[in-house]
Design goal:
Two copies of one chain form a homodimer. Chain A is α+β, with helices and mostly antiparallel strands and 113 residues long. Chain A contains six helices and three strands; from the N terminus they run H-H-E-H-H-E-E-H-H. In chain A, a hairpin with a 2-residue loop joins strand 2 and strand 3. The termini of chain A are far apart. The relative contact order of chain A is 0.19. Chain A binds a DNA duplex (30 and 30 nucleotides) through helix 4.
Chain lengths: 113, 113
DNA sequence: ACCTCATTTCGTCATATGTCGAAACTTAGA
DNA sequence: TCTAAGTTTCGACATATGACGAAATGAGGT
C-alpha cells in the first residue's frame, strides 16, 4: 500500500509529469530540465530524486553532469504501465507540447544557467 | 493536465484507496464506510465527495441514506483503467483484506453510528 | 410541526508539500 | 591545489491536505 501511494503522489504534481514527458524523448541533464521548467535548480533536483525514489527514472553521472532517463528496467513496472495511460490521457496538452519544443533548443545551448 | 493531476491526487490517500477497494464488492452507504475506516463521518464524507468529483464513484440517495458505488459509466475512463492496475499491484494487502471482512459484518448491523 | 438520524458543510488544527536561496558537495580543468 | 560549474542538501516559508467537532441540511416517522 505504502509504495502504491508513493507512486500516485509522485504523479500528483504537474512539474513531475512535465519531467517524465520530457524524458520520453531521451535522457536530459538537470540543468536542461531546469531551463525548460524555469524553476530553481534545487527544486528540480528534489523532484528528480523523488521520481528516482519511486523507480520512475535512473541517473547516470557523466563528469560534472548528471543525466536522468526513464527507467525501463524490470524494476519499473509501475511507470511502465502508467506512462502509456498518461500518454493517452494527455493527448495535446499545450504545456507538454511547448516543453518538447524548448527541450530541442536548450539541448543545443551551453548549459551555464 | 489539471484533470490528470486531480485523478492522481485522488488516489494518493490510503483511506480513499480503501474506499475504492470496498466499493469493488458493491455499493455502500456512508455510515458503513465510516464504521470500517473508523474515521469521523465528516472526514469520510469529504473523501467521498472528492472521489465523486473525479468521477470515480456515483451517489444514489435512498431515504435517509446515501449509497456510493463505483462509476462504471462511459464518463469513468480513468478509474476504469486504473482499478485493474491497483488490483494487480495490491495483491494481498492486510488492510484491504481486513476491510473486506469488516464490510460483511457491518452490512448486517443497524447503521446507527 | 416536531424529532430523529444520516449526511454534509464549516472552521480549526497539525502535518505534508512545493518553492526558494544559501551553502555544501563533486568533478574537470588550469 | 585552486577555481569553476553542475548538482545536491539544508533551512525557511507559504500553501495544500487530512483530520476532527460543531453546526447546518435533508428526509422519514411520530
Amino acid at each position: 500500500m505504502r509504495d502504491l501511494i508513493k507512486v500516485f503522489k509522485a504523479l500528483s504534481d504537474p512539474n513531475r509529469i512535465r519531467i517524465l514527458k520530457m524524458l520520453e524523448a531521451g535522457p536530459l541533464c538537470v540543468c536542461e530540465i531546469t531551463e525548460v521548467l524555469e524553476l530553481a535548480p534545487s527544486t528540480v533536483s528534489k523532484h528528480l530524486s523523488l521520481l528516482r525514489d519511486v523507480n520512475f527514472i535512473l541517473d547516470k553521472k557523466d563528469g560534472k553532469w548528471v543525466y536522468y532517463e526513464l527507467n525501463k528496467t524490470d524494476g519499473a513496472q509501475f511507470i511502465a504501465e502508467l506512462l502509456p495511460l498518461i500518454r493517452k490521457w494527455l493527448p495535446e496538452d499545450e504545456v507538454i507540447l511547448s516543453d518538447r519544443q524548448k527541450v530541442k533548443i536548450v539541448e543545443r545551448n551551453s548549459c551555464t544557467v
